[in-house]
Amino acid sequence: DIQMTQSPSSLSASVGDRVTITCRASQRISSYLNWYQQKPGKAPKLLIYAASSLQSGVPSRFSGSGSGTDFTLTISSLQPEDFATYYCQQSYSTPWTFGQGTKVEFK
Amino acid sequence: EVQLVESGGGLVKPGGSLRLSCAASGITFNNAWMSWVRQAPGKGLEWVGRIKSKTDGGTTDYAAPVKGRFTISRDDSRYTLYLQMNSLKTEDTAFYYCTTEQVGLIYNWFDPWGQGTLVTVSS
């Protein structure tokens, strides 16, 4: 199985900050990488697919990059509604696997 | 608007069985690949398994922890996905989400997701 490791596990940030979350795959997965946002008590929501494609309706302050084993999710200017937990997920081979999550908290 | 609504969660004893349902609307269900993803309270996301559309073979894949105990099926006439869970263990306690696996030309992703249903396995 492909292991996905996110860092950091949590971070504190302020509104307006630039936030970067990294995700590393245990083997090369090309661009088969998706990012999701989850708020407490809610289902996950797709943000980015195929490493860098922005899902329709997602604000442009979210962006994704990377290929191979190393990927990043960047929020260019953190907004109050962005405080949530973020997960990466590989779609290279089953079983599909997720990172452990990165919780973005208010500083 | 696409909507996925799970039901059937509840409290069950270890070794027991439960069947979850996921009612879909706003999508061409018979063409959809569907997955179940679970999340233990306070923990991360774990893929449980998926079923392809009948036109793509209707085959199923499962994660190792549930293989042989869980069965995913679908009723395209009812726009409903099912998860039959047998021989339940305490570690199966989780919120269970159904989601559509979008199959692109090259890449796949999960969107949208249902609101989830809680399964608690406890004596």
Gist of the model:
The complex is a heterodimer of chains A (107) and B (123). By secondary structure, chain A is mainly beta.
Fold and architecture overview:
The complex is a heterodimer of chains A (107) and B (123). Helix content of chain A is 0%, strand content 50%. Chain A is an all-beta fold. In chain A, the strands form two sheets. In chain A, strands 2, 4, 5, 6, 9, 10 and 11 form a seven-stranded mixed beta sheet that branches. The model of chain A has no long low-confidence stretch (mean pLDDT 97). By secondary structure, chain B is mainly β. In chain B, 0% of the residues lie in helices and 54% in strands. In chain B, the strands form two sheets. In chain B, strands 2, 4, 5, 6, 9, 10 and 11 form a seven-stranded mixed beta sheet that branches. A four-stranded antiparallel beta sheet of chain B has the order 1-3-8-7, with no helix packed on it. In chain B, a hairpin with a 4-residue loop joins β7 and β8. Chain B is globular and about 45 Å long. The mean pLDDT of chain B is 97. At the A-B interface, β4, β5 and β10 of A face β5 and β10 of B.
Strands, helices and their partners?
The complex is a heterodimer of chains A (107) and B (123).
Chain A: E1 4-7, E2 10-13, E3 19-25, E4 33-38, E5 45-49, E6 53-54, E7 62-67, E8 70-75, E9 85-90, E10 97-98, E11 102-106
Chain B: E1 3-7, E2 10-12, E3 18-25, E4 33-39, E5 45-51, E6 60-62, E7 70-75, E8 80-85, E9 94-103, E10 108-113, E11 117-121
